[in-house]
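Hi everyone,

Forwarding the result from last night's run.
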Amino acid sequence: MTTIRVLLCLAAMQQWHLHQLDINTAFLHGDLKEIVYMKAPLGLIVPDPTMVCKLQKSIYGLKQASRQWHEKLTTTLLKLGYVKSFSDHSLFTKCIKDNFTAILVYVDDLIVTGNNLQEIIETKSILHNTFSIKDLGNLKFFLGMEVARSNQGIVLYQRKYTLDLLEQTGLLGSKPASTPMEYNSNLHSKSGTPLNDITSYRRLLGKLLYLTHTRPDISFDVSSLSQFLDSPTNLHYKAAIRVLRYLKNTPGQGIFFPSNNTTTIQGYSDSDWAKCIDTRRSITGWCFFLGSALVSWKSKKQNTVSRSSSEAEYRALAMAACEAQWLLFLFRDLGIAHPKPVSIFCDNNSALHIAANPIFHERTKHIDVDCHVVRERVLNNTIHLLPVHTSLQLADIFTKSLSPSPFLKNLTLSIFIFLF
């Protein structure tokens, strides 16, 4: 999903063409490398009931069907001169002089973008002759996400998905909430009484998780509620309903990729120490911008318990540094230069001092690996660490529930929300 957002951001800046394709009966095109037999399907009359069918091609239901289809598509694109990205194996690029074309694959759905319309038309023609495709024209609806384009830029949002979710839960006429979660909410595994129907809670959280691809403002709340999937309670379900009431307030909110933008990457890293009441693990939050457009973010509970806020911040910084490195790899595969180090803003001075201090002592040796991860990227000019005031920390929204005023201020400062 990060690659999709990066491509849309670049397409808005470079005025690239954006087209969408769908492969008809994709899995039936896969070639089998081993001998596979199957029972005769219902309705097929065979002289002997013990006879079986030998498959000549891949079919739906085989465990290797998706792999064989991807291999067949990859082989075809490589013959057309495309290069497979090492940072994202679903991305294929082709660059000849000043002509650039990129194809992003999700099973049988393809996004084709580039600055040469003739190359895109020729690629469509060859793919149609090889696989039989459905040309959906300009990109407007992809994987449940809607795309709107104008001279000002591109908007990625899930308005229809949100309204359908509200209708399914009967909350279309509910009272909107100003924030997705109550301020300083202290939910834990024993809050409330167990639900009789846990399936409905799990189904709801699954749909909300998919919505976070275009709604970073609910990432922390949905991530927090997801940790109670094994035994949810009535209070957990009530908190999930509040997220829906917040969505009712702005169902058409999404990510905006402006046309007037730059290719400079900068990020924000933050953590909330010992946030989880059950395990006392900290929450990691980071986000990365391409110019002024948000393209990547994360809200996640850390794997281990941190003994200090500095350690928690440093673990979050290590994860952000790895994401910055991956974004640079993606830029390299897209043929985009990023000569300057990626700036990462952190509001914890202790973590910045640890990154600058090459001496490890008793207070830092237990986070030796994370120290090396960050310092190595600082020394080779991959990232550049900068301090930021807590009030300007844009990753704060990914680590804790905020009151309405700071929450709205955070959204305003980040400039990544667009109402549609």
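The mean pLDDT is 89.

Cheers,
N.
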